From TrEMBL:
Cross-referenced PANTHER family: PHOSPHOPENTOMUTASE (PTHR21110:SF0)
Binding site for Mn(2+) 1: 12, 330-331
Source organism of the structure: Limosilactobacillus vaginalis
Gene (UniProt): deoB
Origin organism lineage: Bacteria, Bacillati, Bacillota, Bacilli, Lactobacillales
Record protein name field: Phosphopentomutase
SUPFAM superfamilies attached to this UniProt entry: Alkaline phosphatase-like (SSF53649), DeoB insert domain-like (SSF143856)
Length: 397
């Protein structure tokens, strides 16, 4: 008997150790979960993730998270085959659309021609235009932006353009219009960029600036059919929580919920779990990445994991017999690593249902994130194109 509801929670950036191709990305030694555990020196308390097998799936347990004997579900890892290591690459690959070609990145800033087009459209000058930490750039340039009304444009190691403005200087709606225009310039063929991100902030001065929940990702539309669309076309409900709707440009999603925070995202998940539907609920929790990974803050990262773990206890209690829960991540962002960019890591794969027949088994290291989507399609008897299903290992009959 198939699971009627499948819930996937993506812990954005919670990698579990360097990927096999980490050297290509200069990420040898990255280990998000391992380094957070080391920072906490045994004080990282993750009982729910732990009993699902979070330390079981690793060669070395996370400090403070004992190996479960036995785990309540199945566990493993997934390796990424896509050319990039950002959220769009990771989520698209999970849904059967790996990206074989690297999107454009701009280690020296965006071409002046692009910048001039944005200036002409917006009527505002552009400053910075180089790779920068998102919090550091508003600390360094935010006060100037408040005085001049300029646009802070910056990038990172990923295929992304980010535009930061103070909400009281440039209204959010105006910022969104500028980002939408920039999106039209970056859809190819000359420049193909994964995301244009609106990054509004507030605060009186550089010591008190904070980025707001009005962030919005204007993503490249999927370049092919995703498993979300396949499920939707087969008549199943598809629900997105967090930045899922943005990442897929709304394609294949029936309903989307915007998250103010991880806690808000879990509130939305709790609401959806009370509904009667047949299909797939896809949740992204971005605070690990946006608030702590890029800022290289292992203390905050660990605290966010512990807070999530507490909320996860309620999710486990509320699962119906015909529900399936899968917890994973889209890439790494090791707060104990050099730099401020994402890190190329394998991601956790934790699978649980109250009625799973075989528990406490390793699902190994999956060769692609697309195995996740293939498994969900297999559960609903829908044909896909990429990935190898592990549904047979986790079935409930």
């Amino acid at each position: 008997m198939a699971y009627q509801r499948v819930f996937v929670i993506v812990l954005d950036s919670v990698g579990t150790g360097q990927a096999g191709d980490a050297a290509k990305f200069d990420d040898v030694g990255a280990d998000t979960l391992g380094h957070v555990g080391e920072y906490y020196q045994g004080r990282l308390q993750l009982p729910n993730l732990g009993k699902m097998g979070l330390s079981n799936l690793r060669n070395t347990p996370i400090e403070g998270v004992p190996v479960a004997t036995p785990a309540i579900g199945d566990y493993g890892q997934m390796a990424e085959v896509s050319a990039g290591k950002d959220s769009m690459n990771g989520h698209w690959e999970m849904m059967g659309l790996p990206l074989a070609k690297q999107l454009n990145t701009f280690p020296d800033g965006f071409p002046q021609k692009l910048i001039k087009q944005i200036e002409d459209f917006s009527g505002r000058k552009v400053i910075v235009n180089k790779p920068y930490s998102g919090t550091q750039v508003i600390h360094d340039y935010g006060e100037r932006q408040m005085k001049t009304g300029e646009l802070i444009i910056y990038t990172s190691g990923d295929s992304v353009m980010q535009i930061a403005v103070h909400e009281e200087v440039i209204p959010v709606d105006e910022l969104y219009k500028i980002c939408q225009y920039a999106r039209t310039l970056l859809n190819g063929p000359e420049y193909t960029v994964g995301r244009v991100i609106a990054r509004p902030y507030v605060g009186p001065d550089r010591e008190h600036f904070v980025r707001t929940a009005n962030r919005h990702d204007f993503s490249l539309a999927p370049t092919g059919k995703t498993d979300l669309e396949r499920l939707q076309e087969a008549g199943y409900d598809v629900i997105g929580i967090g930045k899922i709707n943005d990442i897929f440009s709304g394609k294949g999603i029936d309903r989307g919920f915007h998250n103010e925070s991880n806690a808000d995202g879990m509130d939305h998940l709790d609401e959806v779990m009370q509904e009667d539907f047949t299909g797939f609920c896809f949740t992204n929790l971005v605070d690990f990445d946006a608030k702590y990974g890029h800022r290289r803050n292992p203390q905050g990262f660990g605290q966010a994991l512990m807070e999530l773990d507490q909320r996860l206890g309620h999710v486990l209690d509320e699962l119906r017999p015909d529900d399936l829960l899968i917890i994973t991540a889209d890439h790494g962002n090791d707060p104990g690593f050099r730099g401020t960019d994402h890190t190329r890591e394998n991601v956790p794969l934790l699978v649980y249902s109250p009625t799973m027949k075989e528990k406490n088994q390793s699902l190994g290291v999956r060769k692609t994130f697309a195995d996740l989507g293939a498994t969900i399609l297999d559960n609903f008897n829908v044909q896909g194109e990429n990935g190898t299903s592990f549904y047979h290992e986790i079935r409930n009959d």
